[in-house]
Specification:
mainly beta, OB fold (Dihydrolipoamide Acetyltransferase, E2P), five-stranded mixed beta barrel, three-stranded antiparallel sheet, 15% helix, elongated
Length: 164
């Protein structure tokens, strides 16, 4: 399928199972269970994750008592991810994720520089979570050989991931 035809015919992701992926460049929706290739650690409790969405809001007396005076410039937002495997009943794909920020180092820096005067929040996607992935098929890995080196049949890039 040419990029021009794909641009005008498929703007929404096509729901697929892993075994149904057939075309490089197709925009798909996959649902499955996360398996970590590399784990990240939640800086608040040390739990394992493959994706971290971190925010730290500096508190002051006014902020705690009257939310009306909250200044958005006192909030730090960071994201970090690691590529992971997504498994459904029909197979396994690798989801490529950009690394992003070093959340653990940034958290330690905030604590050492300013102390504990923050309201921290970390949303994670952890190994074992069921997720929905919207992304493009970047590569199809030949599945016929028992000697192939990859443990997955496709690579998905430009992914948007959310809990199911």
């Amino acid at each position: 399928m040419s990029w021009f035809r794909r641009l005008f015919t498929r703007l929404a992701p096509v729901p697929r199972r892993v075994a149904e992926l057939e075309e490089v460049g197709e925009f798909v929706e996959l649902r499955g269970i996360v398996e970590a290739l590399r784990v990240l650690h939640n800086p608040l409790d040390g739990s394992e994750a493959v994706m971290l969405n971190y925010s730290a809001r500096m508190l002051s007396r006014v902020d705690q008592q009257v939310e009306l005076f909250f200044d958005e410039s006192t909030t730090t937002r960071l994201a970090q991810g690691a590529s992971f495997l997504l498994r459904d009943q029909s197979g396994v794909v690798m989801i490529e994720v950009e690394g992003g920020d070093d959340v653990e180092a940034a958290h330690e820096g905030l604590i050492s520089r300013f102390g504990a005067g923050f309201d921290f929040n970390v949303d994670i996607i952890a190994p074992g979570d069921e997720v929905v992935v919207h992304g493009r098929v970047r590569e199809l890995v030949a599945g016929g050989s028992p000697h192939r080196s990859a443990g997955w049949t496709a690579v998905i890039g430009d992914a948007r991931i959310e809990l199911a």
